[in-house]
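Subject: sequence -> C-alpha cells, single chain

Hey, anyone have a minute? Need the predicted structure for the following. Not urgent.
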Amino acid sequence: MLDFLFKKDTVNVCENLNNFYSKLREMNSFESISEERKEYLKSTMTRYGYLPYPQIKALEELSDAEVLFALESKWEANGVFSNGNFNFSKTSVLARNNVKNSSWLQKEGHDIKLINLAGLGNGNNSDDCGKFMDWLRELLILPSGNLSNNIFGTTMYLIPFHPREFGCAYLPTASCVSPNLEDKNILEKTGANADEQVKLFIQMTQLAGHPVIYDILPQTGRFSKVVLTNVDCARWFDINALIEELIKHVDEVASKLSDKFSKDDLAIVSGIYKKSIKGESYGDLTEHYQNIFNEIDEALKETKIFLSNSMLEKSIQDKLHKKAKSIINRLVGNSHNKKLSENDIKNQGEIIQGLIHEGMWPAPGGAWCSAGVPVFDRMSEGASYPTFKHYKFDGEDVTHFANLDCQTPYYFVCLENGKYNNDVIKFFIDYMKNLQEEFNFDGFRVDHIDHIVDEVSEKDGVPISYRAPRKVLGMLNSAMKDKIPYFATLAEYMLGEKSLKEYHEDMNFDVLWGNDIPAQSYKTPEVIAEENLELSNYNSASKKSTPLSILKTYNNQDGEFEAFDRYPAQLGQQGALFKWFKFKFLPGGRNAQRPIMYIDGDESFTATGMEYIIGNEVSMKRTKDYDFFSKFDALDRFVKNTPVITDGEAHIIRQDDDGFVVWQIQKEGLKNSILVVANYNNPHEKFRQEDENGNSWTEEREGREVFDKTIELSCDYSIVSEFRFDGTDYLEEKFVAATNSLSFGKLMPAEFKFFTVIK
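Reply:
Had a minute. Here:
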C-alpha cells in the first residue's frame, strides 16, 4: 500500500505521514481512554514537554492509544501537528530551526541517549524484539530540550538496525532493516514494512524535537550483501589455494629438522600438521610429537606471512575479485554480468556456501593493536572457517586480542604500498550519503576508529592497518557536512594518545568518545575539571573555526564488555546518581561545551543488559527503580533550565584525599552562582591496579564517609539557599539567614548537596 512512500522523488512527505498516522489512529481509538486519564497525560505533557516515565513503566502502564494521545502534545509543542494532522515542510528539528553548524550536539546540558530498537520491548516478559509502538513509548519519554537555552531535545542515537550475523548488531548481513523489527499488525493495516516503519519512526522522532544520529561502520558483516554485490570493496583470500601452497612447504620445513628428530617421527607429524591446516581432526599428541609440531609451526610462520601478504596485493586481488564475481553471478543467475543490487541477492546462504566451497573468504579485521594484513594460519577444527594470526607493527603476535574475524573491513588502502583505493573510498562515501538520505539522519557516530593515527595504523603518515585511514574519515565527514551544514559527527575515540587535532582538524569530527568508561574509577571532580580545562585550552588555540567537544559518558555500549568492566551500576545506586550529577554539574565553560551520553535502561537503574541485546536481537530486561529515575530525571531537567550551569564554568575550590570536595559554578555577568559540596567516594568501586612488572588486577573498594567538614567563602559571597529533592523536582529552600560558611558533620559516600550563592 505504501510502496511509494519513500521513493526519492516523493515531494509530499507530510501527506504520506498523515496517511499512515490516520490508519494508526484507527487502530488505537482515543475513545478507549478515560477523560481523567486524558487530563493527566495532557497536563503532564504541558508541564514537562515529555512523559517523565522510565521505559519499563511506559511499557507496562500505557496503552497504545495513550501513547499516541500523549505524543500528539509533543508534536503540537513543536508546531508540526494540529487537529489530528501533521503540517511541516522539513522533518529534522535542526532544519526547521535553521541550524547552520553542528554545535547543537556539543551543547552543555544536551543529552545523547543510545537506543537499540530491537531492545525496546518488555524483556522482563518476553525476548520478542521491540516493535513500532514500543519505539513510540521511548519517544514519548525522551526528555525534551530547552530551546530558549539553545538545548535541543535529547538526541536519539540508534545502533545498527540491520539483519544480524550471529545476533550481533555490529555484524550486518544487509543494508535493509531487520525483518525481526517489523510489526506485522501495522504492516497488515497500513502496508508499511520494516524499512518503512523505521523511517516513519525517525520522522516522528525528529518532528517531536529530537535529532537522530546513527552508528556507521568502516567495515561490514563477513559475507554481507554489501560485500556480495560490491566484491571490490573487500580484500579476499583464496583459502584453498593458501592451504595447497602451505602443504607444499610442510615437507620442506620438516626436512630441515632432520638433525633433531627421526625421519619417521617427522613424517608422522608432517602428516598431522597437514591435517591441521585443513581443519581435519588428528587427536591428542604426545609431548614428543607436540614439540615437533610446534617447531614445524614456528618454522612456517614467515611462509604464512609471506603467502598472506602476497595474496592481498592488488594484482592478485584483481584476479580474486573476478573469481568472486563469477561465482556470485553464476549462483544468482546473472548471465549478463549486470551490476547487482542487494535486492538481487535472494539466495544469500547459497551464495556464501558457493564461495566457501571455492575457498573464497573476505579478509577479516584484527585486534585493536594489529597492523598489516591478517595471516592465514589454518582451518578451524572441523574446517568450518579459516583462522588467522594477527601481528603488531613490530612483529609481536597479538592474536589473543583479536575479536573482529567476523567483520570485513573496507579495502581502503593497498597495504603493500600505501596507495589509496579511490574507487572503494568513493563507494564507501556514496554508501553513507545514501544511507543518510534514505533515513534523514542528523549525524553519524563512526565505530571502531581508535588508533587511527598512532603507530598501530600509520607509519610516516602512510596507513599500515585494516582500519579506516584518517584521510578517508576526513573525506567522509567533509562530504556529509558539505551536503548538510548541521550534520554532526561523533568518533569512537577514547583519547589514548590525546590526538585531538588529528581527529578534529584532520578528520573533521565534532565530538570524541572520551575515556570516561575505562577510567570511571578515577574521574573525580578535580580530574573532570582538569579535562575541561585541557579541552578549553585546545579550542582556544585551535585554528579550526568550529570547536571540538568530548563526551561526558555516563554509560555506553562498551562498559559491560570484559575488557572494560566499568559501568555506573557498579557504583551502587547513590554512586551512579552521583556520577550523573557530577557530569551534569561540572561544566567547562564557553570553550569546553560537553554533552552527556547514557543508554536505554540507565534511567531506571538497569544494571546491565546492553551488551546482551547488542549480541542478541531481543528486548532488554529492565529494573523498576522509580525512585532512582525520579532523581535522575529531575537533575537533568534542573540543568537544562539553569543557564549558570549550561553557560557557566565549574571551579574546584577544594578536594581532599578523604573524599570531600567543593566546587562553584559561575557564569560571567551573573551574581548568582551554584556551590556544590559532596563526598566523591562511591559506595563501591572497581580500581585497576598495576605493579612495576606490568601485572594488572582489579581491586574492589568500599567508599568511606567524611566527617566534620567546614567550607568558608570570602565575605563577598553569601550562601542563601539549598536545593532539596521533593520527590519530583529539586526545589530551592531559602535559609533563614544568609551565611558564607557551612559545616557538615557527616557526608555519606556519593552524597551531594548544592546551594545558591549570591555575590
